[in-house]
Structures are given as C-alpha cells and as structure tokens.
C-alpha cells in the first residue's frame, strides 16, 4: 500500500486509528513509572529512564522523547509494539499506552459580560485595583502558538514582569525571543511527539518550522480572548468593528505551542503542562479535548491534576460534538469544563427568492457582492449523490455556473463548501442547516457571497427550489447588529452531558461566549484557514468551545487577582454558583439545536457572570485529598490512582461511599439500585461575618428533596458549615422518565449561591454503556481539541 493511501486511512473515524497505527514499525508511547523505585545508582530519573530504554532490543539513543517529573511520572519514547510489551512487564512500570492525538475545538464579549462597567465589580475595590492585581497573574495557553506582532499583545503601560516568573521565549527559524515583552512573557513549542508522527510514515505531511509562531491562527485567537490588550478599531474586514480586548486584559500571557497541522500530541501536551507548572503560570487554558476516557488514560486530566495541586486553575473546552448527549470532553472534576453560548451581536444577511419571500440568515462576507439581479438557484442537482453537501468534486460546473447553490450543512467545513461552489463556477451560496444544527447560526468570512440559515428556513428554501420550475435568488448583507434577542442561547455544537466517566459529577460546568467571537489572528493565514484564501487580517471571527474556554480562563485570572488566596476549586465554585439561567428576555436559557429550553447537561450551572463571581458569598472548596477519595470511590486500583495523583504512598483508606459525595458545586443524582441518595456538602463563607442564608429547592414531582439544616448561619468570615441533602425517588417512576432537573439555592439579600441538580434513572446509563467500551477504545487512540471549525 502506498504512503498516500496509508495517510488517507489514518484519517478515517477514530475507532480505526489504533489498527492503522499498529502496522507501523515505531510510534510514540507514554510510559508511567513508579518514581519511587529509582535505584540509588542513578543520580536522576532521566538517567534511569534512559537506561530502561537502552536495555531494550534495537533501542536507539534518540528513542527517548521527553521525561516528566511534575505533570506526569515517566517518559515518552519512540517504540515498536514488542518494546512496549517488554516495558509493560517491568515491575517498575505502572502503565504503557499509545500516544493520543488531540485536535483543535474551534469585540463585544467584555461588554456582554459586563466587564466594561464598574458597578459592583469587587466589594471594597474599584476597577483600577483589579487591573493592578491582574498584572501579577499569568495565563498559560496551550494551543497552536502565537503571532507576537499582534496589537493584542502590546505591553504599553505594563509594569515589569513578576520576579517569580521562570519562563522564557524560545528562538526558532521564524521567531526571535525579542518579540516577547511585558505582555507576552513566554513562548515555547513542543514538537517531539509531532516529529515522531510526521516522520514515522503514517501521517506524511511537510514538516513545519519548530517554533512558537502561530501559522494556524487558533492559538493567537484564544490567547487574545483570555488576556489581549485593548485594541481600538478592531474588526474582521469591517464586521464587529470596535475595541477588542481580552477578559483579563492586564494579565500576562505565556504561549505553549503543542498543536501542529496534523494534531496535538499527548506527549507534547504533557511536556508543555510540565513546563508551564515550572514556569509559574496561574491559569492554564486548553481549547482541546476529545472523547470520554478513564481519568488514568486521559493525559490532559493527569497533567491538570498536577497543576491543580499547585494552585493552578485549569480551564478546558467541552467539545463541539453537540447536540448529542454523552458527547463531552474533559470531564474530570478538577477541570473547568466550558460549553458555548451566543452573544447579543449578529451579522444579518438576506436571501431574496423568486417567490417574493425574503429569508434572514448570517454572513461575514466582505466582497463586492452579487448585485441586485436574481440568478438561478440550484440544490441537489446532478448525478453526484453528495451534491447537496457540496463536498469537493460533487458539483457539476455545467449545472451551477453563474448560479446560487444551496448546500446542506455538515461533514465538511462551512467555508470549504463555499470554496467548492466558487470553484465549480457558482456565484453565491445558501448554507442551510439540517436537524443536527437546528436553528444555530454561525457566521463565516466566505470567499463568495454566502448566507447561512437555520433548519426551518433551510427547509422552506429547499422546498421552493424543488417545487419551482425556475427558482431564483439574490443575496445581500446587513453588516453588524447589536442587542439581539434572545441571548445568550446555548450553541447547538456545544458538547453535552451527562458525564460518562463519572456520572455522579454534572458536566459541563458553565457556558461562556463561543459563537462569532472577534479576536486577534495570525497574518500567516487567511480568515477561512483555507490555502486558497489569500486575504490577510489582524482579527478574525470564530466559533466553538475553543472560543468559550479562554473567556473563562480570563475570568478565572480576574478572580485569582482579586482573591489570590482562593484555591482553583473555590474559583470554579464562584463562577458556577453565580452563573445565570435566564436570557436577556427574562426567559429560561434556550438551546439553538431545537429552540426549546436548555438544561444543565447543555449549559451546566448556567452562563458565567463575572461581577457576581467576584463576590459569591459562599464557595464549595475541594482539596487534592478530596479528589483522591473521589478517585478511590470510582473503583480504581491503587496503581491507577497513583498514575493520576503521582504520590508513591497514596492509599484508598479514605473514599466516598458514592463519587457524588465530592464537595462539588453541582449535583448529579443517579438512581440505580437504590431509591435514596444522600449527599453532604460543605460551604465556606467568603463574604461578611454574620451572614445568614436561607434555602430554596426546585425539584421534579417524582423526587422528594429534604435538606438539613434549612438555614446556614456564618458568624465569621472563613467559617465552614455543612448541610445534608436527601433525594428520594418515587417507587414507580413513569417508564418514559429517564432524567429530570432541579436546583438547590442558598440566598440572602446580597447573594444567591445556586447549584443545579440532574436526576437520572439508571436505564439512561444502561443504554449509553452499551457503546462505552468502543468510545474508550477510540479515545485511547485519538482525542480532539474543540475543532477549529464546527462543520
């Protein structure tokens, strides 16, 4: 089989990737060692690991790629399957598994979140105080690198870099350390896993320059969203014009390039997390993830645990596999799992049909347009059965030349469909949603005049084309519109719960802005990301949980600046318990997939509210030892717990009777063999002394909920109070009932501390577990970042 065929095979669905890799002579394996077993004859672990490798048959000096001591205990190496099996049999080895491949989960948000106003910002302080405190906070972004020349990384007015900072800016063929400054204080790249993959024969592509420079755009976009400086007159080719700024615009940025054109490799990600911990970051932002996998096989979860233990807040994207249930990535409770919602800004565009009906959609097209004269409209025409999807090569030029083409959304990238239409001679495109995307509208900077419409409108247009003997259309564009209602709306692409790894932990945690987000961009690539797009722009508008994740990373940096003594779990609690669940029409949050009301499996605790999060009143705190008890309650062996926790003497002498006993800010109640579930929670007063909180419960009719006590009195700041909640399911729950939702709130005049509750009856999980082993096999071979572009 030729190398081209092999490359094609390696990109087919995840479940086949493992078998594809297995035919290769060598690949990257990650080896977890019993660190305490290092013989005294070795002065350090690196030498020990190297000796372990050199003892293997056919080992070469360059087999060792990385050694890990902080984010992970072990090493990454280039091995063949026989060598990997030999290591597995060693008493000093806890586990050996194949390299995982992650992929990317691909301005108005500060105003939408209320960060441009000072009212109630931070009790006893003003915005200047918070700005000053933010100078000491460093956000580490693991992504595709950074475009350092962007104005979003301008350091004008910033004080000296904190003395504690130990990071650096690396040099590369296209990157000078002098490009860093007091804003962009770190830039590193990690490519040994990528090099192994690109040179190993199974993913043959030209090698990229190994430097921190961003030639994709995604990393620059996420870094500037989290902490970009103020930039006036920012726009994408005239759209969304205004001042662009990050959430924590006075915080520092450190970029860790771990993603390359063929993916983001676990060995590189672990090395970057290890470096970021050593450098001294306060927040880690990872807009990447993948399918569900046990925590001891999830490299991001393992690395994030080490970061959390050292007081580093870790925020990750939930994934772009919605609206399907059980589609989440990054489900570990020590990670902030972020879904995506819309803004109150839109980019209207219009399709005027020959039947005199005008339909409204969205677009970021910025060219000359197609004029006012209607032209022919075609859909699903010709001999190719995939012409309705506008896949490459599916359109017949003789049928679409000079016409507007209707393309169904899905499979290939939205902007790619426009390129396919243009290459076939079409002069315009209507991108019509199907049931999968519902009414969600995502704007794109297409290469030709194009309008994206929802499913209902798409059905009307498709029906018109199929029924009219001479269908026509003309497209026009309406610029930027603000104060759109309703907003926010949960994005249809945003991945959904419930949590497959630990059903007793409700995920995602929150949603943040993730649709049509304007942020800085790499000038090495056009706004569509297509090779044929020669346009250059300093800013771009993108959508995905990749975009919502850095919003929360930036907000966490603000909370860290305001409350440096808070733990990562306290910061998470503040963001979750103060989140809101109503849109700007005072209606419950809606889901773009079907237009119906959303639920906590889509929006978690709700949409973040930074003003309230800065002063939450109470927080649910969790210690690293609590997470150990949680892991033990999942039934993991000590070896598996040790892989995550990395403590040589860890035990399960303390474990919860139910994983849901973890002091989490939300509840997931699974009625399996028992009708009664009882949890105890502990709240810490971070508000005023003498605070009193009253209870409010919302629950479905088939569940009785009792809480003791019903009033919490905190005499002192920092005081802790416990409460116990008992959930009792009725004896005969209707057969059709598989899940319901409610909430538990503690409130006074100043604060509302709200926790969502998901109720699940075990038949839902029985259905999902049938395919769970397949999901985990796939996840062990490839995990993905929240894709750069949602199809």
Automatic annotation (TrEMBL):
CDD domains in UniProt: PA_subtilisin_like, Peptidases_S8_3
InterPro entries associated with the record: PA_domain, Peptidase_S8/S53_dom, Peptidase_S8_Ser-AS, Peptidases_S8_3, S8pro/Inhibitor_I9, SBT, Subtilisin-like_FN3
Ranges for domain Peptidase S8/S53: 136-583
Domain Subtilisin-like protease fibronectin type-III, residue spans: 661-758
Main location: secreted
Subcellular location: Secreted, Extracellular space, Apoplast
GO biological process, one term: system development
Domain spans labelled Inhibitor I9: 28-105
Keywords for the protein's UniProt record, in alphabetical order: Apoplast, Glycoprotein, Hydrolase, Protease, Secreted, Serine protease, Signal, Zymogen
Position of the signal peptide: 1-25
Pfam families linked to this entry: fn3_6, Inhibitor_I9, PA, Peptidase_S8
Active site positions, chain numbering: 143, 218, 546
Extent of Basic and acidic residues compositional bias: 205-219
Annotated ranges, domain PA: 378-460
Record GO cellular component, one term: apoplast
Known function: Required for arbuscular mycorrhiza (AM) development during AM symbiosis with AM fungi (e.g. Glomeromycota intraradices).
Family: Belongs to the peptidase S8 family.
Name of this chain's protein: Subtilisin-like protease SBT1.8
């Amino acid at each position: 089989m030729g190398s081209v065929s092999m490359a094609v095979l390696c990109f087919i669905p995840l479940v086949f990737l493992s078998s594809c890799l297995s035919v290769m002579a060598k690949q990257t394996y990650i080896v977890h060692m019993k660190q305490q077993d290092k013989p005294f004859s070795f002065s350090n672990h690196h030498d020990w690991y190297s000796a372990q490798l050199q003892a293997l048959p056919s080992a070469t000096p360059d087999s060792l790629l990385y050694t890990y001591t902080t984010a992970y205990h072990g090493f990454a190496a280039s091995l063949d399957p026989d060598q990997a099996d030999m290591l597995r049999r060693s008493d000093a080895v806890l586990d050996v598994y194949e390299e995982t491949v992650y992929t990317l989960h691909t301005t108005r948000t500060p105003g939408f979140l209320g960060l441009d106003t000072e009212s109630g910002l931070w009790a006893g302080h003003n915005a200047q105080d918070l700005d000053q405190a933010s100078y000491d906070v460093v956000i580490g972004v693991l992504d595709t690198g950074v475009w350092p020349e962007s104005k979003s990384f301008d350091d004008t007015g910033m004080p000296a870099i904190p003395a504690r900072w130990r990071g650096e800016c690396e040099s590369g063929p296209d990157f000078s350390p002098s490009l860093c400054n007091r804003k962009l204080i770190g830039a590193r790249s990690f490519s040994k896993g990528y090099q192994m993959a690109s040179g190993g024969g199974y993913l043959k592509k030209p090698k990229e320059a190994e430097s921190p420079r961003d030639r994709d755009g995604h990393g620059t976009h996420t870094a500037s969203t989290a902490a970009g400086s103020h930039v006036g007159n920012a726009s994408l080719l005239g759209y969304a014009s205004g001042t662009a700024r990050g959430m924590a615009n006075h915080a520092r940025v450190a970029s860790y390039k771990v993603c390359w054109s063929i993916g983001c490799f676990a060995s590189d990600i672990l090395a970057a997390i290890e470096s970021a911990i050593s450098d001294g970051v306060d927040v880690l932002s990872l807009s990447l993830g993948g399918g569900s996998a046990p925590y001891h096989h999830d490299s991001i979860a393992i690395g994030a645990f080490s970061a959390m233990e050292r007081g580093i807040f870790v925020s990750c994207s939930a994934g772009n596999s919605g609206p399907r249930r059980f589609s989440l990535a990054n489900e570990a409770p020590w990670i902030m799992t972020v879904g995506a919602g819309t803004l109150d800004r839109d980019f209207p565009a219009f399709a005027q049909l020959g039947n005199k009906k005008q339909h409204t959609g969205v677009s970021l097209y910025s060219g000359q347009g197609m004029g006012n004269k209607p032209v022919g409209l075609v859909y699903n025409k010709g001999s190719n059965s995939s012409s309705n999807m506008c896949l490459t090569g599916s359109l017949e030029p003789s049928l679409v030349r000079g016409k507007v083409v209707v393309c169904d959304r899905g499979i290939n990238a939205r902007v790619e469909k426009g390129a396919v239409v243009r290459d076939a001679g079409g002069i315009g495109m209507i991108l019509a949603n199907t049931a999968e995307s519902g009414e969600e509208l995502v704007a794109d900077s297409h290469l030709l005049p194009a309008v994206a419409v929802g499913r209902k409108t798409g059905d009307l247009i498709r029906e018109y084309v199929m029924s009219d003997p001479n269908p026509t259309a003309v497209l026009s564009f309406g610029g930027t519109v603000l104060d759109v209602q309703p907003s926010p709306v949960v994005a249809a692409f945003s991945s959904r719960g419930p949590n497959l790894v630990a059903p007793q932990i409700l995920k995602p945690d929150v949603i943040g802005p993730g649709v049509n987000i304007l942020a800085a961009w790499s000038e090495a690539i056009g706004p569509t990301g297509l090779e044929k797009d020669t346009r250059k722009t300093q800013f771009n508008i993108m959508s995905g949980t990749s975009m919502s994740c850095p919003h929360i990373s930036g907000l966490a940096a603000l909370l860290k600046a305001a409350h440096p003594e808070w733990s990562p779990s306290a910061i998470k609690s503040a963001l979750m318990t103060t989140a809101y669940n109503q849109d700007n029409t005072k209606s419950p949050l809606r889901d773009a997939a079907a237009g119906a009301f959303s639920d906590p499996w889509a929006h978690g605790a709700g949409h973040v509210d930074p003003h309230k999060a800065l002063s939450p009143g109470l927080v649910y705190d969790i210690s690293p030892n609590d997470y150990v008890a949680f892991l033990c309650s999942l039934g993991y062996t000590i070896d598996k717990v040790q892989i995550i926790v990395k403590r040589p003497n860890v035990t399960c002498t303390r474990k919860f009777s139910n994983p849901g006993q973890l002091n989490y800010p939300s509840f997931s109640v699974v009625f399996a063999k028992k009708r009664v579930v009882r949890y105890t929670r502990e709240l810490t007063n971070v508000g005023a002394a003498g605070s009193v909180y009253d209870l409010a419960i919302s629950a479905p009719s088939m569940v009785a909920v009792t809480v003791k006590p019903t009033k919490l009195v905190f005499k002192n700041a920092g005081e802790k109070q416990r409460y116990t909640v008992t959930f009792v399911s009725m004896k005969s729950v209707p057969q059709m009932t598989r899940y319901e939702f409610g909430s538990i709130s503690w409130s006074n005049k100043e604060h509302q501390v709200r926790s969502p509750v998901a109720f699940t009856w075990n038949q839902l999980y029985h259905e999902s577990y049938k395919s769970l082993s397949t999901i985990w096999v796939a996840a062990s071979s490839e995990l993905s970042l929240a894709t750069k572009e949602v199809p």
